[in-house]
Amino acid sequence: MVSLSPWPLSIGGFTLGMAGGLASWLHGHSMDLMMWSTLGLTLATKNWWRDMVVEGTYQGFHTKKVTSGFYWGMGLLILSEVLFFFSFFWAFLHSALAPTPEIACQWPPLGISPVNPITWPLFNSIILLTSGALANLAYLYLMMGKLQKATDALNGAILAGILFSGIQGYEYYHAPFTIADSVFGSAFYILTGFHGLHVLVGTIMLQVQKKRLQYLHFSPKHHVGFLAAIWYWHFVDLVWLMLFALVYIWGTANMVDIWDSINTLS
Fold first, then answer.
1. pTM (2 decimals)?
2. How far apart are CA 104 and CA 87, in angstroms?
3. Distance (Å, rounded) from C-alpha 161 to C-alpha 230?
4. Which CDD domains does the record cross-reference, listed alphabetically (predicted)?
5. How far is CA 230 from CA 62, 204, 226, in A?
């Protein structure tokens, strides 16, 4: 096992301080605690990642047992993210299938003009799926020892991720409703906004892997960080597919009529 590290405990403390500082700030107090905790969290995270790269790349401490722990940790992180998004999808579907009188008992609510899914959302779906395919191609090239081709494929995946974020920003700017427009607006922007944040995080992760590829940190037998980043990117792809199908396509129809039709058939 690797040597003991102060960074996990430090990160836990700074995360607690950041959450407490945010709650305090929202109640009208100073935001100093949140800002200092965020700075501390950033520095501690950077130092922890630096130590992990040194341990695995230069010192050879990442044995099979340690590597297995990394894979389990990444898997559990993705599982926690699945549960995170599940709660928001649940809220969206609950409101769509049982619209209340406050929104005229219809979905989408009265006065809401949803985004047409067969425009920018469809284009973004193609972009994100293409990015996932390029990330897979980069991994295949890495396993074949073709590092330059792996870097080129990863560049394509990163550019596609950046393009996705730009188009989403354009869609937000021109959307015919806001986050304050009933439960539809709240659910829409919470789901797409948190997914957009995950796209930004995933894009940064891919950029870090590209840098490490250029520094020759990876090989066909040593690529834990690279594979973990691709796992995360595919998770982002999967969430978008569900979001596109349920929110953009299914959620823009009249859910009451559809639900009544299903009940009639059953």
1. 0.87
2. 24
3. 13
4. Cyt_c_Oxidase_III
5. 19, 12, 7
* Close Cβ partners of 45 (under 8 Å, ≥ 6 residues apart): 7, 11
Cα distance from N-terminal residue to C-terminal residue, the chain: 57
DSSP state string for 161-213: HHHHHHHHHHHHHH-SS-TTSHHHHHHHHHHHHHHHHHHHHHHHHHHHHHHHH
Please report, in tens digits, the pLDDT of each residue of the chain (266 residues total): 677 889 999 999 999 999 999 999 989 898 999 999 999 999 999 999 899 888 888 888 888 888 898 899 999 999 999 999 999 999 999 998 888 888 888 888 888 888 888 889 999 999 999 999 999 999 999 999 999 999 999 999 999 999 999 999 999 999 989 998 889 999 999 999 999 999 999 999 999 999 999 999 998 988 999 999 999 999 999 999 999 999 998 877 655 445 555 566 66
Residue 199, Cα to own-chain centre: how many angstroms? 5
Check: CB of residue 241 under 8 Å from CB of residue 117. Answer: no
- As given in the structure block, the two tokens for residue 231 are 């796992």
Instruction: Go through the chain and tell me how many residues it has.
Output: 266
